[in-house]
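Milestone 3.1: sequence recovery, worked example.
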């Protein structure tokens, strides 16, 4: 019994002498240019914080690669970089961020602001230079044949995007040209532009949704639409983005030729519905879908839609191999001066090498 009592007394003295281990006992991370996050278990991770949205933090770890962590499992965030910060009930701001269990501190031009952690809606990377706000891609394909059959064909797809924590500007282009046996058989071009303003929620305002289209073989000298509307982000994370939107405005169409009792130029109210979807299928393959349908008056075509879908495969460096399918449809295409009515549907398969940045 004396031995047992002595052992219990020794164990009790050791427990009293050894303090409990806290989260902070691991020390403060070094200022090495990396982002550091501390889990509620006390573990520290070093890497790059991509974004925080809908209680999910996306983090690129040096050792563990891409991680998606529940925000409730993250105790602290320390970073030397600037982030776009969205706080409930306030306009988004940009600054250096430090987060602990209770508060978020934002340093803007040397001034520090503090907010309760539960009011934090999202974090996104802020660009340090204007060039960092831009991304884009350009795809080009060609088919040239000489001999028994002479064919010259070019097609291209381009996309340019400028993104900030508050806004997004996107400019798209699709073009196709074909001359066979010295006869032009296709020559169409489509330019689209959108500008979005984001709020603290998934809802965004689209003050600009513009389209320009030209295809003489569809009896369209030019068609121009200008609309405004609203959109909603269904999904927005590292692998997948999915937006839906609706807009309304005016559509102007100039025909190449029409019958005697018809007008070359028509104007119509327009209402559009659309979606933009992109997903990273694997580390080397992406799938992209863009679709817009527009309702206009009968003289302008009644109903039309534009669909672009792409499978993009990584090659080397910034080069991709893309296979795209384009489907344009006009429900009631007007006849030209000769009485010929264009086909309702136009399909194109575009294969090309894409450079992205």
């Amino acid at each position: 019994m004396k031995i047992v009592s002595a052992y219990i007394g020794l164990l009790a003295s050791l427990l009293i002498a050894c303090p409990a281990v806290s989260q902070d006992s691991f020390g403060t991370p070094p200022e090495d240019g990396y982002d550091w996050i501390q889990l509620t278990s006390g573990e520290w991770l070093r890497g790059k914080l991509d974004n925080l949205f809908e209680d999910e933090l996306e983090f690129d770890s040096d050792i563990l690669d891409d991680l998606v962590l529940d925000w409730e499992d993250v105790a602290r965030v320390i970073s030397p970089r600037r982030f776009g910060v969205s706080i409930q009930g306030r306009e988004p701001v940009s600054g250096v961020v430090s987060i602990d269990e209770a508060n978020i501190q934002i340093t803007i031009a040397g001034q520090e602001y503090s907010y309760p952690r539960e009011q934090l809606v999202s974090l996104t990377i802020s660009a340090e230079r204007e060039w960092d706000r831009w991304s884009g891609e350009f795809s080009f394909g060609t088919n040239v044949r000489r001999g028994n059959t002479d064919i010259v064909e070019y097609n291209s797809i381009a996309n340019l995007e400028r993104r900030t924590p508050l806004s997004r500007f996107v400019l798209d282009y699709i073009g196709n040209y074909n001359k066979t046996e010295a006869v032009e058989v296709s020559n169409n071009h489509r330019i689209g532009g959108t500008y979005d303003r984001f709020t603290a929620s998934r809802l965004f305002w689209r003050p600009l949704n513009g389209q320009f289209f030209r295809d003489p073989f569809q009896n369209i000298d030019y068609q121009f639409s200008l609309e405004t509307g609203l959109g909603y982000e269904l999904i927005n994370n590292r692998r997948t983005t999915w937006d839906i939107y609706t807009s309304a405005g005016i559509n102007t169409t100039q025909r190449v030729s029409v019958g005697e009792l018809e007008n070359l130029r028509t104007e119509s109210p327009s209402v559009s519905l659309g979606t933009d979807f992109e997903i990273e299928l694997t580390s080397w393959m992406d799938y992209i879908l863009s679709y817009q349908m527009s309702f206009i008056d009968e003289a302008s075509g009644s109903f039309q839609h534009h669909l672009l879908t792409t499978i993009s495969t990584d090659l080397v460096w910034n080069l991709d191999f893309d296979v795209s399918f384009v489907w344009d449809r006009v429900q009631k295409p007007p006849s030209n001066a000769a009485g010929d009515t264009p086909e309702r549907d136009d399909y194109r398969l575009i294969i090309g090498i894409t450079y992205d940045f």
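Confidence is low (pLDDT under 50) at residues 6-25. The domain at 23-126 is CATH 2.30.30 (SH3 type barrels.).
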